[in-house]
Known about the structure:
The complex is a heterodimer. Chain A is mainly α. Chain A has 2 domains: 2-93, no CATH class; 107-348, MetI-like (MetI-like fold), CATH 1.10.3720. Helices cover 74% and strands 1% of the residues of chain A. Chain A contains 15 helices and 2 strands. In chain A, strands 1-2 form a two-stranded antiparallel ribbon. The longest helix of chain A is centred in the first third of the chain and has 34 residues, at 57-90. Chain A is extended, with a radius of gyration of 29 Å. Chain B folds into 2 domains: 2-49; 73-286, MetI-like (MetI-like fold, Orthogonal Bundle), CATH 1.10.3720. Chain B is mainly α. In chain B, helix 3 (72-80) crosses helix 14 (255-276) and helix 11 (207-223) runs antiparallel to helix 14. Classes of the chains: A mainly alpha, B mainly alpha. Chains A and B meet through helix 3, helix 5, helix 6, helix 7 and helix 9 of A and helix 1, helix 4, helix 5, helix 6 and helix 7 of B.
Amino acid sequence: MDEKKAAQVKTLEAESAELMRQIRAESNIEKKKKLIAKRDGIQRKATAIRNNRKISRETKRDIVAYSFIAPNFIGFAVFTLIPIVFAFLLAFMDWDGSNAVTFVGLENFKKLPTDTFFVAALKNTIIYVVGTVPLTMIASLALAIVLNQKIKARGFFRTVAFFPYVASLVAITAVWSMIFHPSKGPINYLLLTVFKVPQNELPKWFSGSLVLFTLILFSVWKYMGYYMVIYLAGLQGISAELYEAGSLDGATTWQKFCYITWPQLRSTTFFVVVMLTINCFKVYDIAVMLAGGGDGKLSTSATVLVYYIYQNAFNYWDLGYSSAIAMVLFLMVLVVTLIQFRYEKKLGE
Amino acid sequence: MGNANNNEATKKFKSKRKAEMAGKVGLYLILLLITACMIVPFLWMLSASIKSNREVFLMDPFVWIPENPKWDNYINIWTKIPMLKFVENTVILTIVVTFLQLLTSSFAAYSFAKLEFKHKNALFLAYIATIAMPWQVYMVPQFIMMRSMGLNDKLLAMICLQAFSAFGVFMMKQFYEGIPNDLCEAARIDGMSEYRIYAKIMLPLSKPALSTLTIFTFVNTWNDYLGPLIYLRTETKKTIQLGLKMFIGQYSAEYGLIMAGSVVSLIPVLVVFLCLQKYFVEGVASTGLKG
């Protein structure tokens, strides 16, 4: 037994010595690091055998670490990772969910450009994103700057600004549909009586070309409180000394914003814009609740991508086509996110 | 001469004070305006919830509190639809999901932040890569999978769906990385096991992050609509959002009742938020959510 061990240790040591030579000779740092890690592993093994331990300290350490991760990771892998892989495959298949699956290659994607409802959904989603992202960003930044000042009842104002974000969508969309009700709502009543807009020209907030505008307005109202909190956290990370130095140099408030606040908030703004973009692309419930009427059906003027994914999957049971639309959604999010990462990196250099 | 200079300086000082005052007043005016925009829909909701259908849209004269408040709305909402069942379902779902999310995320995050192990980077990358992946992209295959596991139309499906998010792990990891390593090292030298370090040192320190994650998870689960819409078909299994939407579809002209139901659906989130909000900005700041 002991002889066997000694032999094992010997071969391991020889291996390690060989690796050491390679490490010395290697000029590429990345490769060098890999070799060093490999040699460490072998040496650890040798030590473990020498010290008569069944499992090395490192294996024990790994087991403990995995035991921490396992509860979350198993759930995450089963319910997130596997469906993601499944979604990619499904986009190239034809399947109704119960009969046999057939591989159709790019057929699903070829259908997309000729599908007018899909094109409308794509167009509306893009308009919605382009409208909502900058407006929400500006509104939340402005709000954060105001609420970062020393003012009375700051906590109260912050809570109020955040409240639309926590409030349930069904409840607040119900209120909005009443307040903006085309014939009975108070907004149109004000337009009619105070601003003297003629009865037949009163805006129909939830239909036609105006519906996207209402969706954007609503989203800015609902989400700006959330991004305000992120900006507040960013603002609190800016050192007060910068502003003091600015004051000494006689900088105006606007100059302080341009030369101190805005550049210092760059990474925060990056994060806000990325999150906003991702969240805006997945818009669904806002559209269904504000523009969907009683049965929750969306017309071409208000349809969005996720709505069409849902329709194709759960109403028409065309799972392949639904997944192809989902891939379009994913690609757009991915491309926009990558562009933003690139831009952020370029600015950082 | 000196006097004149002095006078000018006071004048300048005074005009500066005046400008500052004007700025302050302007600031408060803007704030009040924004606050009004934020809060008026909620006040309208409260007001409409105690009105009759005719009074809700009565503009001339408009009153916030009607002469005879219809408190009945708050009683009828429980009998017209199985509101109690909806609330019960949502409470169970939200509490279980929030508990699981906090426990498993902080557990996994401790490992990613404070321990060294094989394949650490690859595993973490798996989490990160899915953060930019909207759930809507894989919701259909996920549903098919759950259905084949027999979880269709079960609250358990919703729990599995929402309890293990990449976001929670990411957020908690960012927070733990801000806690000095020396703290854990010292405990290790004292012979504490990793599990004890997590329970006795890390958890008590992570109140702001846990509160923030609680708010996010609670709010998201309580307010989720699309998830329950896909999975929960039987009426007795529906959550409050689905139930409320169903009610609006059925009784679209019962404005007072709809608003009463909406108020009821808001209360739990409001309570949770108000209880935890003092940690909130601190939590967001320390979890690196700011980027």
